[in-house]
Specification:
The structure is a single chain. The chain has 160 residues and is α+β, with helices and mostly antiparallel strands. Helix content is 15%, strand content 39%. The protein has one domain: Immunoglobulins (Immunoglobulin-like), CATH 2.60.40. It has two helices and eight strands. A four-stranded antiparallel sheet has the order 1-3-6-5, with no helix packed on it. It has a four-stranded mixed sheet with strand order 2-8-7-4, with helices on one face. About 12% of the residues have low confidence.
């Protein structure tokens, strides 16, 4: 009986000493399926002894853009520019709006520290009128995970 307990104890120690699969990998070499894990828990994507502040930071030139007056039916676009002011690569996992009239596109690759990126937002005013404000939520490996951008404008009703 003591042999079995000793054997189980030894096996437990041997398997618990194995390093995780991602250790030793550079963050740029991680697979796409690992990106979701990085965004959900950005600190765990780095070395084990990393501090919570050691995450990327998105610094935008502006977080709200006002289109002013727009005619109903027009498609207008704006590019939000940002810089990774953190110390590690930035990865955006998603950019979404609350309606289909606002469509953001974002960089799919890592934005290295000190480098810039762009988030393009296309706003379709078809069937809209009056003052409009649309939020865009950026989900990335920053802390906090979500960043909000806004577009707004007054849509002039089309006269038939």
């Amino acid at each position: 009986m003591n042999r079995w307990i000793f054997l189980i104890f030894c096996l437990t120690i041997i398997f618990s000493c194995n390093e995780p699969e991602t250790s030793g990998k550079k963050i740029e070499e991680m697979k796409v399926d690992e990106a979701a894990s990085i965004i959900r828990n950005p600190v765990s994507a780095m070395d084990d002894d990393v501090e919570a502040e050691f995450v990327p930071k998105m610094t935008f030139e502006e977080t709200t853009h006002d289109f002013g007056s727009i005619k109903e039916g027009e498609k207008v676009e704006y590019i939000f520019k940002f810089k990774n002011t953190g110390e590690v690569p930035l990865l955006i996992g998603d950019a979404r709006s609350t309606c289909g009239c606002t469509v953001p596109t974002y960089p799919k690759d890592y934005v290295q520290p000190g480098k810039t990126g762009k988030i393009k937002v296309v706003f379709d005013t078809k069937s809209l009128s009056g003052f409009q404000t649309k939020p865009i939520t950026i989900t990335s490996n920053t802390n906090p995970r979500d960043t909000k951008l806004f577009i707004k404008g007054f849509v002039e009703e089309h006269k038939h």
